[in-house]
């Protein structure tokens, strides 16, 4: 064997038939074939989104999931900075929009969905963009947006939202007291010029009308690219039910309601969070016990299957859950 050149550190021997002896010290190109890498995706990956390699060798999109928040004293109201009385944060939801513009104050990256008090137990569905930090008894937002001025959301359990990182859209869900507690939703887009999430006038109903509907939560499940919403259905003996929705453009299509709990639950007796890939964890409080369920979201079609419920403790108010996808552990409180 003969090598045609002296080579340098880090090179490898490559067959090059045109050179004397057929072997040449050459540079390594990683990855090969013009710096491209072909991989198998786990779930949908949107354009220009970061990815990570899973333990099974597949890649998946890295998302910033929404987190939900309660005030330090869950019985407190928060003063509204727009002169509309006090607002209730019992079921508020803080959403991270990773596609929104940011500036030195962080404005445009975090939004909070909550019920804005209008008096007499009536509130409006609202989303505000953070312009500064919050204290234990007040908040300061720069971009206050009433999602629907004609709808009245329940003061305590009537408002939630999430961000679809595939469609780059916000989804707001609430109970419209002006329509006998009909669960409704809307799809919105972040406007970087005024730091607001702007929603169109079209509403998308899910669940059934009933005066005992009390409580609604939602998350975006990135592996399947779908929104999962849970709610207390007064039309179905106050059972915890759920629906799956798919955002397309500025619209969302909801599947049929599916029972999660076998019996009725307390007003607002629910919470949910993302679990492992393609799954959502749900908490349910029936007044005697708190039960956890795992929902497996279908890879096609707007539906899910419900795993066997697991008792996690006694009945408590303001139940919360979080899940570590790294360690596959759940925290319930």
Description:
There is one protein chain. This protein is an all-beta fold. 1% of the residues lie in helices and 49% in strands. The chain has one helix and 29 strands. It has one helix spanning 32-35; strands at residues 2-3, 12-15, 22-26, 51-53, 59-61, 67-68, 77-79, 86-96, 110-119, 122-130, 141-146, 153-154, 159-164, 169-176, 182-191, 196-199, 204-206, 216-221, 226-233, 239-248, 251-254, 258-264, 270-274, 279-285, 289-297, 304-306, 310-314, 321-324, 329-332. The strands form seven sheets. Strands 6, 7, 8, 9, 10, 11 and 12 form a seven-stranded antiparallel β-sheet that branches. Strands 13, 14, 15, 16 and 17 form a five-stranded antiparallel β-sheet that branches. Strand 18 (216-221) and strand 19 (226-233) form a beta hairpin. The longest helix has 4 residues, at 32-35. It is elongated and about 90 Å long. The N and C termini lie far apart (70 Å). Residues 65-88, 103-108 and 131-142 have low confidence and may be disordered.
Nutshell version of this structure?
1% of the residues lie in helices and 49% in strands.
Write the layout of secondary structure elements.
Elements: E1 2-3, E2 12-15, E3 22-26, H1 32-35, E4 51-53, E5 59-61, E6 67-68, E7 77-79, E8 86-96, E9 110-119, E10 122-130, E11 141-146, E12 153-154, E13 159-164, E14 169-176, E15 182-191, E16 196-199, E17 204-206, E18 216-221, E19 226-233, E20 239-248, E21 251-254, E22 258-264, E23 270-274, E24 279-285, E25 289-297, E26 304-306, E27 310-314, E28 321-324, E29 329-332
Parallel strand pairs: 1-3
Antiparallel strand pairs: 2-3, 4-5, 6-8, 7-8, 8-9, 9-10, 10-11, 10-12, 13-14, 14-15, 15-16, 15-17, 18-19, 19-20, 20-21, 20-22, 23-24, 24-25, 25-26, 25-27, 28-29
């Amino acid at each position: 064997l003969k090598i045609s050149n002296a080579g340098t550190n880090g090179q490898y021997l490559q067959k090059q038939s045109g050179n004397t002896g057929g072997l040449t010290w050459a540079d390594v190109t990683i990855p090969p074939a013009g710096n491209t890498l072909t991989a198998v995706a786990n779930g949908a990956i949107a354009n220009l989104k970061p990815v990570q390699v899973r333990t099974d060798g597949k890649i998946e999109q890295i998302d910033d999931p929404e987190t939900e928040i309660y005030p330090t004293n869950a019985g407190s109201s928060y003063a509204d900075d727009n002169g509309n009385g006090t607002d209730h944060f019992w079921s508020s939801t803080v959403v991270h929009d990773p596609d929104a513009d940011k500036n030195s104050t962080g404005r445009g990256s975090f939004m909070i969905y909550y019920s804005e008090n209008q008096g007499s137990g009536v509130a409006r569905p609202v989303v505000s963009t953070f312009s500064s930090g919050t204290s234990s008894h007040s908040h300061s937002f720069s971009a206050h947006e009433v999602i629907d001025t004609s709808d009245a959301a329940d003061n305590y359990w009537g408002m939630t939202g999430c961000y679809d990182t595939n469609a780059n859209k916000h989804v707001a869900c609430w109970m419209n007291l002006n329509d006998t507690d009909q669960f409704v939703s809307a799809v919105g887009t972040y406007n970087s010029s005024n730091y607001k999430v702007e929603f169109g006038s079209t509403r998308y109903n899910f669940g059934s009308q009933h005066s005992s509907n009390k409580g609604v939560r939602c998350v975006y499940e990135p592996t399947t690219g779908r929104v999962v919403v849970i709610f207390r259905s007064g039309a179905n003996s106050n059972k915890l039910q759920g629906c799956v929705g798919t955002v397309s453009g500025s619209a969302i299509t909801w599947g049929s309601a599916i029972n999660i709990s076998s019996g009725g639950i307390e007003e607002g007796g629910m919470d949910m969070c993302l679990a492992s890939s393609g799954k959502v964890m749900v908490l349910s409080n029936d007044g005697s016990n708190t039960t956890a369920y795992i929902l497996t979201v279908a890879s096609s079609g707007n539906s899910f299957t419900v795993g066997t419920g697991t008792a996690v403790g006694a009945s408590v108010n303001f139940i919360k859950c979080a899940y570590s996808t790294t360690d596959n552990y759940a925290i319930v409180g």
